[in-house]
Amino acid sequence: MGFDLQLWETALESGNRYTYLPKYLHIFESVPSTNQTLWDLLKQGADKNSIVIATQQTAGRGQWGRQWISPTGGLYLSVGIVPKLEATDSYQLTLASAWGIAAQLRQCGVSVGIKWPNDLVLYGRKLGGILTETKVHNGQIIQAVIGVGINWANPVPDTGINLETWQASQPTKAISCLEMLTNTVVLGIESGIDCLCQEGVSVLLSRYLDLLINIGDQVYINNLLGTVVGVTSQGNLHVSLETYDSTEIKTPEIYVEPGTISLGYSKSSVLL
Ligand code: BTN
């Protein structure tokens, strides 16, 4: 069940065409990690906008050093881009990609939401995730690799969902194959990065927040109860804490970095 270039071309012909992606497509049966393979190819002189796709990964990388289990049937894709961004804004690439992919899937009738900061969720379960890696020089990003894993037909844990199975229960199936999903995801990344670069981070953030499932969630931080009210342009979670003294309720604002707390998948199961 390898990636079928012919089907990808058919999907390209029937849908939107890319404006600048993909320049060069590298397709593999099995690699340790498509992100790592793309970095290796870049080192060997590959085009900076190259794309790597693999049928499976043997050492897929997740956020915060986690493993991304990557059996055949899933989508494993890495896209190279050269954004004009400072290193301190690198998280914007993840926000942009998450929004772009979710929005593109929604156009196909797949009601995907975003779980802060980088999860794509469908019916309260994890459909996919994004791992952005960057190379920085003098405080500027000189190369970024955006890695995306989406559950298409691969087995998933209890908190996960795969798109092929979900679509089987739907009246219409807008995404008919892995290659069409790949096309949708690449278009999504491109539209997200376009939005960030052309319209700016404020526009991007307001679109990202429209699809964020966590607004209004209650979270405990250092034993204090708070409510999720937004996400900053650096990707931090904005939480209003409720504190009481003898006379009044105060609501100090705090900003939580990605990776420091984990939000649950349903509204009622927010974790510490
Ligand atoms: C997450 O932890 O949610 C992010 C997972 C990102 C996985 C993708 S699969 C393709 C690319 N190559 C990798 O090694 N990781 C990313």
UniProtKB/TrEMBL annotation:
The keyword Ligase applies. Its EC number is 6.3.4.15. This is Biotin--[acetyl-CoA-carboxylase] ligase. One of its GO terms (molecular function) is biotin--[biotin carboxyl-carrier protein] ligase activity. Keywords: Ligase. Pfam families: BPL_LplA_LipB (PF03099). InterPro entries: aa-tRNA-synth_II/BPL/LPL (IPR045864), Biotin_CoA_COase_ligase (IPR004408), BPL_LPL_catalytic (IPR004143). PROSITE patterns: BPL_LPL_CATALYTIC (PS51733). Residues 15-212 form the BPL/LPL catalytic domain.
